[in-house]
Amino acid sequence: MRTYSRITGTGSALPQRAVSNAELAVELAQRGIETSDDWIVSRTGIRQRFIASADCSTTDLAVDAARKALEMAGVTADDVDLIVLATSTPDQVFPSTACLVQARLGIRGAAAFDVQAVCSGFVYALTVADAMIRTGTYRRALVIGAEIFSRILDWTDRTTCVLFGDGAGAVVLESSIEPGLLSCRLHADGSQAKILCAAGRVDSGQIVGDPFLRMDGQAVFKLAVNVLDSSAREVLADAKLDVTAIDWLIPHQANVRILSATARKLDLPDSRVIVTVDQHGNTSAASVPLALDVAVRDGRITRGQHLVLQGVGGGFTWGSVLLRF
Ligand code: ACO
After folding, report:
1. pLDDT tens, 284-321?
2. Which residues form the catalytic set?
3. How far apart (Å, rounded) are the C-alpha atoms in residues 16 and 19?
4. Is 217 a pocket residue for ligand 1 (Cβ < 6 Å)?
5. What is the pLDDT of residue 58?
């Protein structure tokens, strides 16, 4: 009998401090940087973001989200045999944040590793966990996206620092005879690495190169809009489904203009797109599982619906997962 993977629980976590555009504008003005709520809302749709305090780690947010997902799935940490965690802001060079989460949850022996695909990270992690479960070797995975992007932002660069926020989202993915994940497709184009990068590294006890996120916003915008539409069509074609079968599109939450353009190209009404970027900003690998959890908990997403989850970001990377919830 064919084995599928299926999401049985979702969870998310945000730092305590929400920072509105107006508050951010005041903070940036103190550094001589000019921005405004009007500019940020009209260009991005972002109204606020959550910023982690100095004592909050990526692991803290990931553990919080994972516990909520386990609770919704009705399972305990002991039942987990795989942790795949997507992040570009790990707490340490190594061990992986997945291992730190494993220890905090008191899980022993389960496989645990990080996936690094920036804003596509969660979709990459979900695809990897799905493949591992379908082999029959693993039964129950925690798949997590967790980020503290505020620590790699140059707070004197208004073209990037207003866009991002911190957070985490998680799902429990279990082996099932019913689908489940129907199609996963991933892509990358490393020749576009420079349009979105944090190029610095630790070398001989020093940070060498630029440690901050840098982005060519317009190049990213154009690429994102082009690939999200074709990527959604690719997973639908795999499952022999039409766009009309999509109950909810959950793209990476970078910018409402990117979300609307993608919906338009797919001929999908905006009302079928989950949007949380207004509340969370761009939380990179955390954005898709955060948006998923919000819409599951507020009752919009219900069992049996078809969802398309989409990642796009640094690398350049992109991909989609089509699933029956
Ligand atoms: N506040 C006020 N003014 C600003 C700000 C700011 N925060 N940032 C830039 N500006 C100014 C610029 O200096 C420029 O001024 P000028 O005309 O005097 O030179 C003007 O606004 C227009 O700048 P543009 O860069 O042309 O603005 P654009 O309309 O392209 O919007 C943005 C910029 C929002 C970054 C857009 O390109 C975009 O959304 N790109 C997609 C990138 C994205 O969302 N990335 C997230 C990470 S990638 C990912 O997750 C896939």
Report:
1. 999 999 999 999 999 999 999 999 999 999 999 999 99
2. 119, 252, 282
3. 10
4. yes
5. 98
Is the C-beta atom of 163 inside 6 A of ligand 1?
yes
**Atom number in ligand 1 closest to CA 162:** 7
Q: What integer is the mean pLDDT of 257-272?
A: 96
Helix axes 287-297, 121-134, angle to 10 degrees: 80
Of 166, 129, 131, residue with least CA distance to 144: 129
Locate tokens 């920072």: which residue?
19
The pTM score is 0.97
* Angstrom distance (rounded) from CA 22 to CA 96: 36
Strand ranges, E, within the chain: 4-13, 17-20, 48-51, 82-86, 111-115, 140-148, 166-176, 181-188, 196-197, 201-203, 206-208, 214-215, 248-251, 306-313, 317-324
The kind and range of the H/E element at 3 are: none
Report the nearest-CA residue for atom 29 of ligand 1: 43
- Tell me if 313 CB under 6 Å of ligand 1: yes
The pLDDT tens digits for 72-85 are 999 999 999 999 99
Query: Which DSSP string corresponds to 46-104?
Result: --EEEE--TT--HHHHHHHHHHHHHHHHT--GGG--EEEEE-SS-SSSSS-HHHHHHHH
* All residues at 6 or more sequence positions from 105 whose CB lies less than 8 Å from its CB, including other chains: 63, 66, 67, 77, 80
Distance between CA atoms of 157 and 285, rounded to whole angstroms? 22
Q: Which uninterrupted H or E stretch holds 301? A: none
Ramachandran angles phi, psi of 34, nearest 5°: -100, 130
- End-to-end C-alpha distance for the chain, whole angstroms: 20
pLDDT at res. 151: 98
Tell which residue, 149, 173, 137, has the closest CA to residue 281.
149
